[in-house]
Design goal:
Helix 1 crosses helix 9 and helix 3 packs parallel to helix 4. It contains nine helices and seven strands, in the order βαβαβαβαβααβαααβ. It is of the alpha/beta class.
């Protein structure tokens, strides 16, 4: 059986990087994408050292031509696209709504929302023609709960969850599944930037009394993309240390 192919955007750090290793260890052929050539080439080399077929393709998900080229080069290299993980994202500019500007809004939504739209557009172009595939968008618990001081970011993740559900319904009959994973607080550079490095209070507020790890989120992404989740589509899978239950 031919190994399945996964494309991961925003793959160079944090959850995206952990997902790349998780899929590589599970036998996938892996395409990692991001905007930094040196880091991308190094990551591809690390994945290859594990025995995976892996390639880095530079792209910026805010630009339609970049995403089209990314998907086309993935298919040219490996012949198909079985899984896409749309992880590219930004925390934007944290702060109260009164401090937000048209520019801070655009900077957040262009990556988190437009990037997800363009990614799904081109991924589905391939997957629907195949009659199979799984897309996993990365949201956040802020995408269904909101948070003070994170209004624009939370709004962008609400949009990602709405897109996930709507597109899942559009393409369900074609054999393509679309789900999202919504992490709670996870020990990443993004969380450090968002909190100014003070993550202790956030961890203490969780029922599990600790932050999640990128590997724990990657395991959930791998599950959502796998045949084990074959009856899931349009779902938002929260992985949040009990945050939503508290």
């Amino acid at each position: 059986m031919t190994a399945p192919v996964v494309l991961i955007t925003g793959a160079l750090t944090g959850i995206g990087r952990a997902a790349a290793f998780a899929f590589a260890r599970d036998g996938y052929k892996v395409v990692v994408s991001g905007r930094r050539d040196d880091a991308g080439t190094a990551l591809a080399g690390e994945l290859q050292a594990l025995g995976a077929e892996a390639e880095f393709i530079r792209s910026d998900v805010r630009h339609d031509d970049d995403v089209r080229d990314l998907v086309d080069r993935t298919v040219s290299r490996f012949g198909r696209l079985d899984v896409a993980v749309n992880n590219a994202g930004t925390e934007g500019t944290p702060g109260p709504i009164t401090a937000q500007t048209a520019e801070s809004y655009a900077a957040t939504f262009e990556t988190n929302v437009l990037g997800t739209i363009l990614s799904m557009k081109h991924e589905l172009r391939v997957m629907q023609a195949q009659g199979s595939g799984a897309i996993v968008n990365i949201s956040s618990t802020y995408g269904h709960r909101g948070a003070g001081g994170a209004s624009v970011y939370a709004a962008s993740k609400h949009a990602v969850e709405g897109l996930t559900k709507s597109v899942a319904m559009e393409v369900a009959a074609s054999g393509v599944r679309v789900n999202a994973v919504a992490p709670g607080p996870v020990a990443t550079g993004m969380l450090d930037r968002f909190t100014g490095g003070d993550t202790g209070k956030m961890a203490a507020g969780l029922p599990l009394k600790r932050l999640g790890t990128p590997d724990e989120i990657a395991a959930a992404i791998l599950f959502a993309a796998s045949p084990a989740a074959s009856f899931m589509t349009g779902d938002i899978l929260s992985v949040d240390g009990g945050k939503a239950a508290g």
